[in-house]
UniProtKB/TrEMBL annotation:
A molecular function GO annotation: cytoskeletal anchor activity
GO cellular component annotations of the record: apical cortex
Domain Protein inscuteable homologue C-terminal positions: 91-543
Gene Ontology annotations of biological process type: apical protein localization; asymmetric cell division; establishment of mitotic spindle orientation; regulation of asymmetric cell division
The protein's name in its UniProt record: INSC protein
Domain Protein inscuteable homologue LGN-binding: residue ranges: 34-78
Length: 543
C-alpha cells in the first residue's frame, strides 16, 4: 500500500529523522494497550457527538479569573522549558502514531474507526498548539501560518471522514478513498513542517540565551534544555548544529567564568557531534584544539576532563563515515593521547576510565603511530594494572575498550614483551570467559566483543614463542576449543568462532601436542572456512 508507506515515511523524516515510528516511549505504547471496556467505548462514542473545537476551547480556558499575564507566570513557574518541550514531543509522538494508525485503518476500510481517530487527532493537534502557545512568547509569522493551515486541514479531514461514515455505497467510498489519502498525506506534511519550525524556533531561543546571557543559572538551564533535546534523535542534533549550537557551546568552553558548566556543555557537544553537521561546525571553531587544552589542563576537574574525553571518543568513532576533521586531530594527537593515558591512570571511578579508554581505543584505529605513542607512554602496563582493580574496570564495556587497545597494539613486535611483563596473557585468558550477568542485549554484545578481541589478540601475539608458551600453560587451548564447539559458550556468535579458530590454529603451530587428534582433524587441519561450517553445523544440531 503506497499511501500508507508514504505517510509513514513523511512522518518519520519530518519529525524524528532516522528513528522508526514504532520505537515509541513506553508511556505512549501503554496508551494504546489500555483494555477497551463499555465505559471507554461510551467515551469513544461521546467524542463523535461533541464539537472538537468546543472541547479544545474549554481545555485551554484558565481556571483562574485573574489577568492573562498572571496565568502565564503561574504556568511558566510550574514547568521549565525542558519540561514543556518534552510535553510537546510526547504530544507530537502521539499525533504521528495516530496518523499512521489512521492510514492502516483506512487500508482496511474501517470508516467508523477512521473517523473517531481523526477526531482524536484533531483534538490532539489543537491541544498541542494551545499548549505550545501557552509557554512560548514569540511565535514567528511562519509558525502561525502553519498552525492555521494544519488546523484547517484537520477540520477538513474530520468533516471528510464524517461524511464517509454516512455513506453505505461501497463503490462511492472506494472512489473517495484516494482523496482521503491525499488529505491525510497533506495533514502529515503540515504537521511535520510545524514540528520542524517549532523545534528550530526553540533551538534558536536556547542558543540565544547561551550566547547573550551572563547569568550562570540561565546559561546552565539553557544548556540542560539543549542536552535534553539532543537525546531525542539525530534530527534534532542536525537542527541544533545548523543553528550554530557547536559554535555557541565551544564559546562557553573558552570562558573561565563558565568553568562550572564545562561538564554539561561538553556532554551536549558529544551528543551533537554524532552527525556530520556537528563535525563541520567543530572544525570551523578549531574545537579539537580547545578539547586538547581542556584535557591537558590539570586545573580542570576530573569530571570536565572525562567529558572532554567523551567528545574525543565521539568524534574519533571508527563507525563515522565522515573524516574531514581528522587532519586537525592528528596535529594534536600526541598531547591528547598523553592526557588520556594519564586520565586512565588517575581515574577515580569506572565511568571516568570508560570514557578515557574509549577515546584511546578509537584513536588506535587511526594509525600505528598512535599505538607506538601508547607503548612509549607505558600505556600497556597502566591498562593491565587498571584491569586488576574491579572498582575501575567494572563492566564488560570497560573491558571491551581495554582489549580493543590491546588488539590494535598487538600488531607491534614490541608489544609481546610488555604483555608478558604485565601478566597480560592471564587477562586475555580471563576475557575468553566473559559472560553477561544481566542478560541485557547491549551487555551480551559487549561480552561477545570482549571474547572476539581477546582471541584476536592472542592470535596476533602468539607469533612470539614466549607468549604462545604462556598461553598454552594457562590452558588457553582447551578454552578456545570449547568456544569453537559450544555455541552457547560464545552466545552463537560467528565473529567469536572465527577469532577462536584463528587463535587455535596459531597456538597449534607453536604447541601441536596440546590438541587431541579429533580437535586437530576438525578445527586445525581443514581450511578455516570448512572448520567454520563444521562448527556452525554443530550449532544447528543442538537446536
Amino acid at each position: 500500500d503506497c499511501n500508507l508507506w508514504r505517510i509513514h515515511k513523511e512522518l518519520n523524516m519530518a519529525f524524528k529523522g532516522e528513528d522508526h515510528l514504532d520505537s515509541l516511549p513506553l508511556p505512549v505504547q501503554r496508551m494504546h494497550l489500555i483494555q477497551v471496556d463499555s465505559v471507554q467505548r461510551w467515551m469513544e462514542d461521546l467524542k463523535l457527538m461533541t464539537d472538537c473545537e468546543c472541547m479544545c476551547i474549554l481545555q485551554s480556558k484558565p481556571i483562574s479569573t485573574e489577568k492573562d499575564e498572571q496565568n502565564e507566570l503561574i504556568l511558566s513557574s510550574q514547568c521549565s522549558t525542558s519540561d514543556n518541550l518534552q510535553l510537546l514531543l510526547k504530544r507530537a509522538w502521539i499525533i504521528s502514531t495516530e496518523l499512521t494508525r489512521i492510514a492502516q485503518k483506512l487500508e482496511k476500510n474501517r470508516w467508523q474507526r477512521v473517523h473517531s481517530m481523526t477526531v482524536r487527532v484533531n483534538c490532539h493537534v489543537r491541544s498541542m498548539i494551545n499548549e505550545y502557545n501557552a509557554f512560548t512568547r514569540s511565535s514567528s509569522e511562519e509558525m502561525c501560518q502553519m498552525e492555521n493551515l494544519l488546523i484547517e486541514k484537520c477540520s477538513e479531514f474530520t468533516a471528510f471522514t464524517e461524511r464517509c461514515t454516512q455513506i453505505e455505497d461501497e463503490q462511492q467510498l472506494r472512489s473517495m478513498k484516494s482523496c482521503i489519502n491525499q488529505t491525510l498525506t497533506t495533514v502529515a506534511q503540515y504537521f511535520g513542517q510545524l514540528i520542524e519550525l517549532v523545534l528550530t524556533h526553540e533551538a534558536q531561543n536556547l542558543l540565544r540565551q547561551i550566547e547573550l546571557s551572563d547569568s550562570v543559572y540561565i546559561t546552565e538551564s539553557a544548556i540542560n534544555s539543549l542536552l535534553s533535546l539532543t537525546q531525542e534523535g539525530t534530527h534534532l542534533c542536525r537542527i541544533i548544529a545548523k543553528e550554530g549550537g557547536v559554535v555557541a557551546l565551544f564559546k562557553i568552553c573558552r570562558q573561565d567564568y563558565f568553568r562550572c558548566l564545562y561538564p554539561q556543555t561538553l556532554r551536549t557537544l558529544a551528543s551533537i557531534c554524532c552527525i556530520e553537521e556537528g563535525m563541520h561546525q567543530l572544525e570551523k571553531v578549531d574545537g579539537i584544539l580547545c578539547l586538547a587544552d581542556i584535557l591537558t589542563d590539570n586545573t580542570h576537574s576530573e569530571a570536565t576532563r572525562a567529558e572532554a574525553a567523551a567528545v574525543i571518543a565521539q568524534i574519533t568513532s571508527p563507525h563515522l563515515t565522515f573524516t574531514q576533521h581528522l587532519s586537525s586531530f592528528l596535529e594534536n594527537m600526541e598531547e591528547i593521547v598523553t592526557a588520556l593515558v594519564k586520565l586512565c591512570q588517575e581515574a577515580s571511578s569506572g565511568e571516568v576510565f570508560l570514557l578515557a579508554s574509549a577515546a584511546l581505543a578509537n584513536i588506535t584505529f587511526f594509525d600505528t603511530m598512535a599505538c607506538e605513542m601508547l607503548l612509549q607512554l607505558n600505556a600497556m602496563k597502566i591498562l593491565l594494572t587498571a584491569c586488576s582493580d574491579k572498582h575501575i574496570v567494572d563492566t564488560p564495556y570497560s573491558r571491551d575498550q581495554v582489549v580493543t587497545i590491546l588488539a590494535n597494539m598487538s600488531v607491534l613486535d614490541q608489544c609481546a614483551s610488555e604483555i608478558i611483563q604485565g601478566n597480560g596473557v592471564q587477562l586475555l585468558m580471563e576475557m575468553l570467559f566473559e559472560r553477561s550477568s544481566s542478560g541485557n542485549s547491549a551487555e551480551v554484545a559487549a561480552c561477545e566483543r570482549v571474547q572476539q578481541k581477546s582471541a584476536v589478540t592472542l592470535a596476533r601475539l602468539s607469533r612470539d614463542p614466549e607468549v604462545a608458551d604462556a598461553a598454552v600453560k594457562l590452558s588457553c587451548i582447551p578454552r578456545l576449543i570449547k568456544l569453537c564447539r559450544s555455541p552457547t559458550e560464545r552466545n552463537n556468535s560467528d565473529s567469536v568462532l572465527v577469532a577462536c579458530l584463528a587463535a587455535l590454529r596459531r597456538l597449534a603451530v607453536m604447541s601441536p601436542d596440546g590438541l587431541e587428534d579429533s580437535d586437530f582433524q576438525q578445527l586445525v587441519k581443514p581450511r578455516l572456512v570448512d572448520s567454520f561450517l563444521l562448527c556452525t553445523n554443530m550449532e544447528e544440531s543442538f537446536v
